[in-house]
Amino acid sequence: MSDNKVVFETLYDGYAQSFTVTKQLFEVKTEHQYLEIVETPFMGRVMLLDGVVQTTERDEFIYHEMMVHVPLFAHPNPKRVLIIGGGDGGILREVLRHKNVEHVTQVEIDGSVIDMCKEYFPNHSQGAFDDPRANIVIADGKEFVAQCQDTFDVIISDSTDPIGPGEVLFTSDFYKDEKTCLNEGGIMVAQNGVPFMQKNEITNTYQRLSKLYTDTSFYVMPVPTYIGGFMTLAWASDDESLRKQTAEQIQERVDAAGFETRYYNADVHVAAFALPNYVRKLLVKA
Ligand code: SAM
């Protein structure tokens, strides 16, 4: 491909972000999806799956910190973590910063994503895939939870959007089986799109999860390259108090953990659960 091409994201009809591309670093049609990695002057390296932005070097920290530290600092003592998807390694990297975490299983459907991200996004995983606490499984997350005997304190579903291989990770069957893998007092969080653009996604997830958990909600964060406004992450547990802790309670755990973050802090943690009225209106039970 000639340099300085412009790549348009294909997630929405009639509305898109574009990137000036100085170099296409890699492309492949894997068994599951079309994977492309490009160099851009503005966002650094960008990975797209089936034409949809998955992660960029410049803004990945926001998403990965919020996907991980909100549940892991809300849980009183997370020792075992399950990651579904997350092939770029950013979620795994952030989970392993929690020294009280003893074991992480990551279930990624497409090994090519892990291989390519190790090579082209080394700062995402920073060696996390080789951590002795990490157990990497190449499989469909839906099939994994359907037969999984292990249980976990926190489950993080970092999947693509509900199109293509990611679609099954937004179904009631998946959520039901997934919950059998969650320990008592556990927390599940999941990538759940941009509500301003994908409002059905948040309503569907709310209706499906609230049939399984006593406390279902969402929290938000702004990821510049997940266009259309802030992104919502689904939150589910059977203990509402886990979601309603004070910044002071969270701060104690942040201080004890002893690592720096670039986006996440205890005040942002608490504020992220404040939902605007148009999003609250999407939380209607079936
Ligand atoms: N942060 C991105 C977002 O919010 O869209 C997601 C990044 S990560 C690259 C998404 C990962 O989900 C990809 O590696 C993809 O291969 C994986 N994935 C999609 N469907 C899956 C499934 N059914 N089981 C396991 N992994 C899946």
Structure description:
The chain has 286 residues and is α/β, with parallel strands linked by helices. It has two domains: 5-56, Spermidine synthase, tetramerisation domain (Spermidine Synthase, Chain: A, domain 2, Roll), CATH 2.30.140; 60-285, Rossmann fold. The chain is built from ten helices and 13 strands. The chain has helices at 60-74, 90-95, 111-120, 122-125, 141-147, 172-179, 199-209, 247-257, 266-271, 277-280, and strands spanning 5-8, 18-21, 23-29, 34-40, 44-49, 52-56, 80-85, 103-108, 134-138, 152-158, 182-191, 215-221, 231-237. The protein has a seven-stranded mixed beta sheet with strand order 9-8-7-10-11-13-12, with helices on both faces. A four-stranded antiparallel beta sheet has the order 3-4-5-6, covered by helices on one side. A two-stranded antiparallel sheet has the order 1-2. Strand 3 (23-29) and strand 4 form a beta hairpin. Helix 5 packs across helix 6. The protein is globular, with a radius of gyration of 18 Å. The mean pLDDT is 96. The site of S-adenosylmethionine has 24 residues, from strand 6, strand 7, strand 8 and helix 5.
SSE order, as H and E? EEEEEEHEHEHHEHEHEHEEHHH
How many strands, which pairing sense, and closed or not: the largest β-sheet?
7 strands, mixed
- Domain module count: 2
Sum up the overall morphology in one term: globular
Ranges where pLDDT stays below 50 over 5 or more residues in a row are none
The CATH superfamily name of the largest domain is Vaccinia Virus protein VP39
Bound molecules: S-adenosylmethionine
**Side-by-side strand order of the widest sheet:** 9-8-7-10-11-13-12
CATH topology of the largest domain: Rossmann fold
Percent helix among the residues? Answer: 25-40%
**Rounded average pLDDT:** 96
Q: So, CATH architecture of the largest domain?
A: 3-Layer(aba) Sandwich
Strand content: 25-35%
Q: How many distinct helices?
A: 10
Look at the structure and give the CATH class of the largest domain: Alpha Beta
